[in-house]
Write a structure and sequence with these properties.
Number of domains: 1
Largest sheet: 5 strands, mixed
Helix content: 10-25%
CATH architecture: 4-Layer Sandwich
Shape: globular
Structural class: alpha/beta
Radius of gyration: 19 Å
Strand content: 35-45%
Order of helices and strands: EEHEHEEEEEEEHHEE
Strand order of the largest sheet: 1-2-3-5-4
Number of strands: 12
Length: 205
């Protein structure tokens, strides 16, 4: 789970008038397996509450919409959207839970393996904000261990070079996602999710 972060913007309310500031809190949470064990519903709610219930909660690997509804009710958040998808033959779900109305929800399936992005517009007094919950592909060439990914310095540098300069499934999915967001022609965008950062244990020697 990522920590809750503030998001905000300023908007001019009229010619010659002072700008009005709008702020909200955002949390993103992959509720999938933790060391092979499914995270229980009560543990999810407790973890969110301990960080302070946000205005906007972005969920990944959520098993079904029924759980999303239960989480929303438990946290006192009145609006949600949900979408399901399959990647590598496994079923997953994405959700956006909000204290403000959500409209125009769209589910996008990212190439080549079927990971996905759920996009919706959140209504605000100052207009609408584009919100996205996304689940990206992990680096498949690495073997995951309990404490992360073990690799040498050379392997780590080659991986970094490939991800930054080469064409990979992850880089392609990111380009696809950026194009989707740009197509909405808005500067007010909030993106959160499981981008699959690599926690590496480097072998020194």
């Amino acid at each position: 789970m990522n920590r809750m972060i503030p998001a905000g913007w300023e908007t001019k309310v009229g010619k010659g008038l002072k700008a009005t500031e709008y702020r909200l809190t955002v949390m993103t949470y992959n509720v999938g397996t933790l060391h092979g064990t499914k995270v229980a519903f009560g543990e999810i709610v407790k973890a969110v509450e301990e960080g302070g219930v946000p205005d906007l909660l972005l969920l990944q690997e959520i098993p079904n919409e029924e759980m999303v509804v239960g989480i929303a009710r438990s946290l006192g958040l009145g609006y949600h959207v949900y979408g399901s998808y399959r990647a590598h033959g496994k079923g997953y779900g994405l959700a956006i839970v909000s204290s403000r109305p959500l409209v125009n929800a769209e589910m996008h399936y990212l190439k080549p393996y079927g990971h996905a992005a759920l996009i919706a517009e959140m209504k605000q007094d100052a207009g609408r904000v584009l919100v996205c919950s996304v689940h990206l592909e992990r680096v498949r060439c690495l073997k995951k261990e309990k404490d992360g990914f073990r690799m040498s310095w050379k392997e780590a540098l080659n991986l970094l070079r490939g991800e930054m300069t080469g064409e990979t499934p992850r880089s392609g999915a990111v380009e696809e996602l950026v194009a989707l967001l740009n197509a909405h022609s808005t500067e007010r965008v909030i993106v959160g999710g499981d981008h699959y950062p690599v926690k590496a244990v480097l072998d020194i020697g």
